[in-house]
Amino acid sequence: MSIEAVRKWYPKALTSIDTVNRLLDTIEKHLSLEPHQLMHADSMCCDDVNAIQYPPRAYEMLGPFHLGGLDGYPFAGITGMNAFAHHVPEDGAVIIFYAPHIGITKDGTIGEISRIGQSDNSACCGAAKGALGKLANDKIIEGNITSLDFQMNTIEQIFLHQKNRIMTAENQIFEATEVMYEAIDDRIEVLVQETNYPCKYVILVGAIFINGDKDMGSFCQYKKFEYIDLETKERRSLMDEYYQ
Q: Which Pfam family, just one, is annotated for this protein (predicted)?
């Protein structure tokens, strides 16, 4: 399958292999850092398809340290961010990649994929679709977060607070994924502000991670690519350089 089915929904999507190649090339060109100087954390869904489709070149960086739980929300919190921050090379940078994920089939159906060894399609992200189903049926109770299903309950609350936006959208699972990205982005920004990093830069990369069918691989559309110079506190986007 070509990338066209993905680009119907995400016009600037690239294969995840291409995104990592461009990412590392852009960092090397503009920050003079090589992969072994980058301590990498990701905040992605714990769904096995993300491990299966993880781009190999990402392993040239140190890590990854996994911040994410269901649908990529950084459930590791301030303790996880602090632990990861203190593993970084002093002359290097931390790079935090965060993304909710969504499936797109060969024929362009969004919110599901064909998985290895299965004859029927399944939900992707399953947690997002589950929360969306409860939202549509008015089954989410305001403030209900339990220890037994803490991560799922958190996603439900995020969706509940954006119920009108999601339910009136042209495509609800697409919109719910956008809502999830914004919630993850907000939380990552708070965690970064609360953490001291003993290195030169913090690099923030926010995206939508797109899972294809079992024989398609994965894709990614960046929404943020910025670095913070920890000495000068300057913050700058590298998005234009990334897409050159």
A: LCIB_C_CA
